Amino acid sequence: MTEIFNRSIFYCKRELVTFMTNIIEIEKLALDLDMGKRLLGIDLGSKTIGLATSDLSNNIATPLMTLKRKKFGENVIELNQIIEDNSIYALIIGLPKNMDNSEGPRCQATRAFVRNLANVKIGPVCFWDERGSTIAVTKTLIEADVSRSKRKEVVDKLAAGFILQGALDRICGIRKNIGI
User: Fold this and answer.
1) Does 90 fall in a domain?
2) Which domain holds residue 166?
């Protein structure tokens, strides 16, 4: 009985290590990212998941689609298909920190979502501070006189594009500073 328990602990620890090595800092991603490797920006909401992709040169983020939140397994199947169809190398996931830089329940939910991805074959995952992304996108849509119903349809994928574009700009800045 003890032996089985010990193997389970080892297995859990091994899975945790595998999971932890999958999350990398944006600086490491900037060094590892080659031309032609695309990124997927993700804005996790309680009801929807906004998605955006980068171009092959990793300069421009383009809103892709909005998925409805379902059971985790169903969303993973959809994400896997999108990752495969778009040849995605890494994920940029918006981390909804509080304005004082603390992490509240939404951050915990986002980290739990990524933890649950540990058994899914995905590339590197980077968190990106998404504070203000949905607000900025909503403000822009209001200024463009987009109706409330239309805003509701597009705000999450546009927020994912906003998040991904911020990360792409940072990656380009890092690469430029080191001469890549």
Assistant:
1) yes
2) 23-177
Task: Give the residue ranges of DSSP H helices in 33-147.
Answer: 72-85, 105-116, 133-143
Rounded-to-integer distance, Cα 94 and Cα 140, Å: 19
Q: At what angle do helices 133-143 and 148-177 cross, to 10 degrees?
A: 120
* 160 in any annotated domain: yes
pTM for the complete prediction?
0.83
Dist. CA 11–CA 6, nearest whole Å? 8
Contacts for 116 with CB less than 8 Å, ≥ 6 apart: 72
3-class SS of residue 50? strand
What is the structure's pLDDT at 16? 41
Place of tokens 């546009």: 158
